[in-house]
Structures are given as structure tokens and as C-alpha cells.
Write a sequence for this structure.
């Protein structure tokens, strides 16, 4: 099986250790994964803010880059959801039938990290060790669009030394939502305050999630309050 990792632009620019951890984890499980150098942004930002025309060349590049792979693993629920739910729509909107077919094929072979590990590889114990008290925030796209369910929790429960504690109101949004946090700063801040209160109530050392964007938002708030709680991506825990 030919496996590639779609790093995502946020990870590439701000959180490269997440991409490295994803590759390290998959290689530890026996897969010689590729990280194609021609990959760029998937175009989610453009579509979400009302610029599908600007997303079209990004969708085309993504399909051309990943079309020949049997599986594309994404350490991001939101980007995986964009590839599975937006790319075909963008191609249809601009009448590119060939691109529609390619986008459909790539979408069928695209997996959020926990989906790939549990559903495709059939593993929950990846040989990780992380001796910390951890709570998990299920991000909106992974929860509602991808419906990853308890897959991340099943993986975390098998990590040696990890104490997993339930996050109160786990299924509520953290308030990030891309440009939502900028355009609706007051609402976003209030939502973040509620999410941080839940995290702090668990007395966890670490708040984990499958999206670096949400972790950036939550982690920024926790850092500004000097809580001592850090945020760690699921891939980094599983690769440890």
C-alpha cells in the first residue's frame, strides 16, 4: 500500500513537529510513507470564506499530487473534512468533470489519522508511552463531519502510562473556527473561556486534540493564564 502524508499548511508553517510525529508513527508501524513536496494548502480557507474560485487551482494541485496513492493520512480533522466534502463541490461548480472524478477518488482514500490507524490498519495499541494525565478535545470537523467517534480515545487508552480523563462538555466548540475567531472575537473568546474551564476542571497536565488549529487556540488561552497546562497533538502522543 502506497501511503502519503498530507501535512497541512498550518502544521507545515507553525507546528512542524506534528508532521514529523505522523511520519515517525507510520514508519514505526511498518509503512515507508511519502511526503510529496508539491503539496500546498488544500483550499479550505478559501472555500470557507467565500472564494471557491481561488480554491480551484489548490484543489487541482492536491488531486494531481495525491491521486496515485492508496491512502492519504491527514493529521487534521478539518483538512481531511475539506478534502472529503469540499473538493468535489468546487470542481463541479466550475464544470471540470475530470477533476470531479479525481477529487472523488482522492477523497475515498483520504483518512484522518485516527481513522487510518483504527479502520485501515486495525490497530489501537501503537506502542506509545506518555506518562501524563491527559484530557481530549474532539474537534468540530472530526466530530461532526468525519464522525471519528471514539477512535482517538481508543488509541489514547492504549498508551502506556497515560491517564485519560473525560473533558466536561467535550463536544462543544473551542471557538476557533478559522476566521471566525477574528471576525467574531468576543464570541470566540467567550467560547474559549468555557473550553478552558472544562480543561482546567479535569486537572489534566495535557489537553490533546487532532487539529493543530484548535490546539493553537486553546493553548494560547491556557498559556496567557499561566495555567501550566500544555497542548499536544494526538500524533505527538502516539509517536512518543
Amino acid at each position: 500500500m502506497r501511503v502519503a502524508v498530507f501535512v497541512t499548511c498550518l502544521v507545515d508553517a507553525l507546528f512542524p513537529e506534528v508532521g514529523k510525529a505522523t511520519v515517525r508513527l507510520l514508519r514505526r508501524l511498518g509503512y515507508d510513507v511519502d511526503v510529496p513536496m508539491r503539496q500546498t494548502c488544500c483550499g479550505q480557507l478559501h472555500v470557507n470564506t467565500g472564494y471557491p474560485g481561488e480554491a480551484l487551482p489548490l484543489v487541482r494541485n492536491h488531486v494531481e499530487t495525491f491521486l496515485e496513492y492508496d491512502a492519504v493520512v491527514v493529521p487534521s480533522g478539518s483538512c481531511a473534512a475539506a478534502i472529503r466534502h469540499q473538493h468535489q463541490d468546487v470542481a463541479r461548480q466550475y464544470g471540470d468533470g475530470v477533476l470531479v472524478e479525481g477529487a472523488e477518488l482522492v477523497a475515498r482514500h483520504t483518512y484522518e489519522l485516527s481513522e487510518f490507524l483504527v479502520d485501515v490498519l486495525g490497530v489501537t495499541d501503537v506502542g506509545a508511552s506518555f506518562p501524563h494525565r491527559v484530557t481530549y478535545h474532539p474537534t468540530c470537523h472530526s466530530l461532526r463531519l468525519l464522525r471519528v467517534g471514539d477512535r482517538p480515545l481508543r488509541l489514547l487508552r492504549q498508551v502506556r502510562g497515560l491517564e485519560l480523563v473525560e473533558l466536561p462538555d467535550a463536544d462543544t466548540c473551542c471557538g476557533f473556527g478559522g476566521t471566525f475567531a477574528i471576525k467574531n472575537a468576543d464570541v470566540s473568546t467567550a467560547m474559549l473561556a468555557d473550553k478552558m474551564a472544562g480543561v482546567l476542571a479535569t486537572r489534566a497536565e495535557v489537553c490533546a486534540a487532532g487539529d493543530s488549529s484548535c490546539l493553537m487556540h486553546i493553548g494560547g488561552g491556557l498559556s496567557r493564564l499561566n495555567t501550566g497546562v500544555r497542548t499536544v497533538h494526538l500524533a505527538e502522543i502516539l509517536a512518543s
Remarks:
- Residues 3-120 form one domain.
- The chain has a mean pLDDT of 96.
